[in-house]
Specification:
alpha/beta, Rossmann fold, Zinc Finger, Delta Prime, domain 3, 16 helices
C-alpha cells in the first residue's frame, strides 16, 4: 500500500482534494474515485478512511497509522468500516441490502460509518438502484467511497450524488515498480512501463506470448543490423514479416525498435538507469561507445518516419526494407 506521501507525489491533485475536504471539515457523504487500475484509488480510499477514524492525525489530517483504529482498518476488521467486492463477476442487490441493514444499526464505536465499494461499475442494475436509494437518503455520519476504472458505466444518477476525484495514469518509474510488485520480471517491467501507462494493459501484454516473441524478434533484428545489410534483410524475412502481420503489430514492432536506440542515447548521456532492455545492458553499453548522438538521432528519426509512412498506408515490406538501409547508414529513407 502506498503511503500518503507517495500518493501526494504521484496523484497531487487527487490527494489535495481529499486533504482539503478533511482540513475544511467538508467531507462529502459520497465519493467516486475513478482511474485506471494501479493508480492508487484504493490506497487513497483507505487513507481517507484512516484519516476520519484516526486517534492521532497530524495537523494536516494525515493518519498516524499507529493507533488502534488505523491498525484495524489496515487489517480489515474495524466494526464501522465495510468493504464490498464483486461476488463473482458482479456486485449483487443482496450485498447492497446487507450493507443497508448494517448501516441501520448504530455505529459500534463512533457516530460515523463508512463503506467502500470496489469495482462499483460491476453492480447489477438492481444493486445500483438499491445503492441509489441509499445515496439519496444517507444516514447521518454515513460516508461512501466508490472505486471504478470505468466511470461511464456508473448510473448518471449515482454519479450526480458523488464527489468525483480522478486519478491520473502513473509515471513510468512508479508503474515499473508496481509491475515488479505484481510479479512482472524485472527485465520486462521497464519496457512495459515505457510503452503504456495503463497498469492493466501492461499486465495483459506481459502475459501475451506474442509480445514476448516480438521483443525477441526486434532484438534479433537489431543485432543483425550491426553485422551486414544481408544479415538484416534475412532477419526481416526470417521472423519479422511472419510475426508483425497487421498494422498495429508492425507499429508495436517499430516502437520496440525505437526504444533500443533510446537506450543507447540514455547510456551516452549518463542515464543508464532508465534503459528498458536491462538484460542487454552490456551489449548496449558497448554499442553506445561506437556511435554518436547525432547518428542515434538520425536513426530514431528514421523509425519515427517509418511509423508515419505506415499510417499513410505505405507497403509494409518496402517500408521495412528501406528502414533497414537507413538504420545501417545506406541509402536515404524515402
Amino acid at each position: 500500500m502506498m503511503t500518503w506521501e507517495q500518493l501526494q507525489s504521484v496523484q497531487p491533485v487527487a490527494m489535495k482534494m481529499i486533504q482539503n475536504s478533511l482540513v475544511k471539515d467538508r467531507v462529502a457523504h459520497a465519493y467516486l474515485f475513478e482511474g485506471e487500475r494501479g493508480t492508487g484509488k484504493k490506497d487513497a480510499g483507505t487513507l481517507l478512511i484512516k484519516s476520519i477514524f484516526c486517534d492521532h492525525p497530524s495537523k494536516d489530517y494525515i493518519p498516524c497509522d499507529e493507533c488502534i483504529n488505523c491498525k484495524r482498518i489496515t487489517n480489515g476488521n474495524h466494526p464501522d468500516v465495510h468493504m464490498i467486492e464483486p461476488d463473482g463477476l458482479s456486485i449483487k442487490k443482496g450485498q447492497i441490502q446487507e450493507l443497508q441493514a448494517e448501516f441501520n444499526k448504530t455505529g459500534v464505536e463512533s457516530k460515523k460509518k463508512l463503506y467502500m465499494i470496489s469495482h462499483a461499475d460491476k453492480m447489477t442494475v438492481n444493486a445500483a438502484n438499491s445503492l441509489l436509494k441509499f445515496l439519496e437518503e444517507p444516514h447521518s455520519g454515513t460516508i461512501a467511497i466508490l472505486l471504478t476504472e470505468q466511470a461511464h458505466r456508473i448510473l448518471p444518477t449515482i454519479l450526480s450524488r458523488c464527489q468525483l476525484i480522478s486519478f491520473k495514469p502513473l509515471p513510468p518509474s512508479i508503474l515499473k515498480e508496481n509491475l515488479k510488485q505484481e510479479g512482472v520480471h524485472p527485465h520486462f517491467a521497464p519496457l512495459l512501463a515505457s510503452i503504456t501507462n495503463n497498469f492493466q494493459e501492461a499486465l495483459d501484454l506481459n502475459n501475451e506470448e506474442w509480445f514476448a516473441q516480438a521483443r525477441k524478434i526486434v532484438l534479433k533484428l537489431y543485432e543483425g543490423l550491426k553485422k551486414s545489410p544481408l544479415q538484416a534483410m534475412v532477419g526481416l524475412q526470417d521472423g519479422w514479416f511472419d510475426h508483425f502481420k497487421e498494422k498495429p503489430q508492425l507499429e508495436r514492432g517499430l516502437e520496440l525498435m525505437l526504444l533500443i536506440y533510446k537506450d543507447l542515447l540514455y547510456i551516452q548521456v549518463g542515464k543508464g538507469e532508465q534503459i528498458v532492455y536491462p538484460d542487454y545492458r552490456q551489449m548496449l553499453e558497448t554499442d553506445a561507445l561506437q556511435t554518436s548522438a547525432r547518428r542515434l538521432s538520425e536513426q530514431m528519426t528514421a523509425i519515427l518516419e517509418a511509423k508515419r509512412k505506415l499510417n499513410s498506408n505505405m507497403n509494409p515490406q518496402l517500408l521495412m526494407e528501406q528502414l533497414v538501409l537507413e538504420l545501417q547508414g545506406g541509402s536515404s529513407f524515402v
